[in-house]
């Protein structure tokens, strides 16, 4: 049994599934990374994803255009981000609680709209896989890396981009300083509010696209609560990745690979109870969090509302 | 400032809950003014939505059919709460309906059993039903119903084995229990009886509703060589989406799933709970409120194999399926179930 699991075709299968499965986590977790680096914890990612997934699906269904669907997901994500920014920046609400509020709002609204506007389960033609010429024919690397749909490639392209923006640009410097010491940033003339508005809205856009990556990229259907906890895993992956885009990439890949592994274990008939197999990625996440959490430091101002003194 | 914001957050939370509630359950259609003869009133609690193309829809469709059969709203009325995946919410709904004096309250999900066991004795003059199970708890006002889903599973398995070119079939199960477990066992038995060398790979997602887990399971089966897939529970829409994209065949169960992917859905085992419902209604009208369990199967018409008219099924495959149905009905084919 174990030998079967280690055969080349199975290993390629696991790697390819893992790469694809990581996509929604990457979008959502990179968006969340920006928010947290600026000091805002957004637990509403799941709700933003659900609304993004619904609007991407619905707009695609009605207009037949995947691009309009993707745009709709980004816009609705931005609006959710805007609302979250207003509550956390202007009203200085407790971020954890308001995030959960936005999650429930997104869960309920996406469900309601689905029932009223679509009614029953339908499928659409989502983004097709793009085989990158030459590269997709490479042995092993071809099927693992170069036979995915567009949203998968973009998700991976975001990782170096996010790293660059956070570490090498002025806006990145502002984001980090606002997240570490908003008082100091403020005294240097950086608008804490503007930076946080920017990161939260950007996070919303990416969460919306994360939902779209599911509904019009990977699954091509919408169903109530279809993200089933992915948004919360994405938040955990930000801690897991120690608030760095590369760490988030590692965490997303590890989580997804283990998920793919447990599926393959069941398919090739490794004698492990399915209930235990399904738990594997979650248990691993908790274990890694336990090991790493003492070694890295969160942004100092994370989850703290900023109020100007005087 | 602080106070204002707490109020705001509270308002937001309430709004969220209201929205969530709106999405979940549709209010009962208002009862009409009393007709000369009192209509039979049924309330049903469903774990997923009434249009899930699976378990909950099968019951909703049956209620609509029975209502029509009995002569419309003057003879039978029903209300439902769907999306009751939280057992606590379902229990509250069951108790509510019971105190409103419905003639029959159906808890459509084996997860509701312990709630029903608690509630039923408090309303001795109300009839309750639940499934899928055979357990009436020995109570005089509880009916139980189940589906011999292994029968349709067997027929689907026979067709799948005949249609597969790769010799590998993939099964996407939710949790290994109830009609899901029976369906999967039947499917494997039918496939193996048709082609002893066929490989049937089975995965369980650990959830009834996780569409993305079902989709990834389908992807994995296809990578492992499967060219025919099947699965059960409301999550399978995710798997059907993948099957459609990758152009592999699909066999459905519980409800007719052909509309989702007309080119690749071959056939569905469709549940017709009407058979059970009419029997229960008749017994209640004659004063017997429970204490009996029912099974739908191919023979009593509670399970029907619906072929997708848009799929071009080779005649020999259809004949094999019809032979299997006959064999199961006359008892010459027996399907062994474990446990």
Largest interface: A-B, 59 and 57 residues
Q: What global shape of chain A is seen? A: globular
The whole-number mean of residue pLDDT values of chain B reads 90
Tell me roughly what share of residues is in helical segments of chain A.
Answer: over 70%
Indicate the CATH architecture of chain A.
Answer: Orthogonal Bundle
Question: What Rg of chain A do the Cα atoms give?
Answer: 20 Å
Spans of chain A of at least 5 consecutive residues whose pLDDT stays below 50 are none
CATH class of the largest domain in chain B: Alpha Beta
Q: Please trace the helix and strand order of chain A, writing H or E for each element.
A: HHHHHEHEHHHHHHH
Query: Tell me, what is the CATH class of chain A?
Result: Mainly Alpha
Q: Would you identify the CATH architecture of the largest domain in chain B? A: 3-Layer(aba) Sandwich
- Overall pLDDT metric of chain A: 92
Structural class of chain B: alpha/beta
Rough shape of chain B? globular
Structural class of chain A: mainly alpha
Distance between the termini of chain A: 69 Å
Number of contiguous helices of chain B: 10
- CATH level-four homologous superfamily name of the largest domain in chain B: Response regulator
How many helices of chain A in DSSP terms? 13
Give unreliable regions of chain B as ranges. 23-35
């Amino acid at each position: 049994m174990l030998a079967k699991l280690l055969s080349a075709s199975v290993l390629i299968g696991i790697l390819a599934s893992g790469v694809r499965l990581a996509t929604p986590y990457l979008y959502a977790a990179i968006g969340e990374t920006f928010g947290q680096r600026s000091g805002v914890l957004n637990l509403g990612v799941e709700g933003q994803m659900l609304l993004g997934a619904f609007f991407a699906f619905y707009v695609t269904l009605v207009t037949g255009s995947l691009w309009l669907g993707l745009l709709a997901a980004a816009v609705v994500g931005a609006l959710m981000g805007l609302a979250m920014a207003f509550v956390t920046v202007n009203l200085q609400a407790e971020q954890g609680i308001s995030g959960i509020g936005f999650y429930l709002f997104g869960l309920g609204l996406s469900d309601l709209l689905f029932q009223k506007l679509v009614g029953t389960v339908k499928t659409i033609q989502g983004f097709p896989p793009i085989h990158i010429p030459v590269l997709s024919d490479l042995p092993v690397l071809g099927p693992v890396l170069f036979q995915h749909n567009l949203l998968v490639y973009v998700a991976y392209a975001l990782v170096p981009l996010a790293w660059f923006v956070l570490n090498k640009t002025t806006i990145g410097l502002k984001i980090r300083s606002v997240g570490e010491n908003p008082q100091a940033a403020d005294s240097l003339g950086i608008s804490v509010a503007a930076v946080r508005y920017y990161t939260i809205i950007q996070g919303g856009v990416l969460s919306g696209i994360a939902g779209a990556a599911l509904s019009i990229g990977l699954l091509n259907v919408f169903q109530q609560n279809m993200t089933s906890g992915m948004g919360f895993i994405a938040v955990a992956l930000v801690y897991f990745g120690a608030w760095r885009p590369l760490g988030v990439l590692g965490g997303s890949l590890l989580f997804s690979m283990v998920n793919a592994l447990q599926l393959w274990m069941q398919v090739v008939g490794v004698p492990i109870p399915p209930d235990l197999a399904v738990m594997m990625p979650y248990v691993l996440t908790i274990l890694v969090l336990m090991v790493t959490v003492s070694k890295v430091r969160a942004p100092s101002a994370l989850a703290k509302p900023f109020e100007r003194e005087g | 400032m602080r106070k204002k914001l707490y109020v705001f957050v509270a308002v937001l939370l309430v709004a969220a809950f209201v929205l969530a509630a709106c999405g979940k359950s549709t209010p009962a259609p208002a009862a009409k003014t009393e007709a000369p003869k009192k209509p039979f009133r049924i309330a049903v609690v469903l774990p997923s939505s009434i249009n899930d193309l699976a378990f909950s829809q099968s019951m909703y469709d049956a209620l609509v059919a029975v209502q029509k059969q009995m002569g419309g709203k003057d003879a039978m009325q029903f209300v439902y709460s769907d999306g009751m995946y939280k057992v606590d919410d379902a229990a509250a709904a069951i108790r509510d309906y019971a105190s409103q004096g419905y003639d029959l309250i159906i808890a459509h999900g084996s997860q509701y059993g312990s709630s029903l066991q608690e509630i039923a004795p408090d309303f001795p003059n109300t009839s309750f039903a639940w499934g899928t199970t055979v357990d009436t708890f020995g109570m005089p006002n509880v009916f139980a119903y189940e589906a011999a889903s292994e029968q349709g599973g067997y027929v689907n398995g026979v067709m799948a084995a005949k249609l597969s070119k790769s010799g590998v079939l993939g099964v996407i199960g939710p949790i290994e229990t109830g009609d899901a477990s029976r369906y999967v066992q039947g499917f494997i038995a039918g496939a193996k009886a048709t082609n002893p060398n066929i490989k049937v790979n089975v995965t369980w997602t650990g959830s009834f509703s996780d569409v993305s887990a079902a989709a990834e399971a389908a992807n994995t089966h296809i990578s492992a060589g499967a060219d025919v897939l099947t699965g059960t529970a409301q999550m399978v829409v995710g798997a059907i989406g993948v099957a459609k994209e990758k152009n592999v065949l699909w066999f459905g169960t519980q409800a007719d799933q052909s509309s989702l992917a007309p080119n690749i859905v071959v056939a569905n085992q469709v549940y017709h709970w009407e058979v059970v419902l009419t029997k229960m209604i008749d017994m209640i009208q004659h004063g017997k409120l429970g204490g009996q369990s029912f099974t739908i199967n191919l023979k009593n018409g509670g399970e029907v194999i619906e072929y997708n008219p848009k799929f071009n099924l080779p005649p020999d495959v259809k004949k094999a399926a019809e032979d299997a149905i006959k064999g199961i009905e006359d008892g010459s084919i027996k399907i062994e179930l474990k446990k």
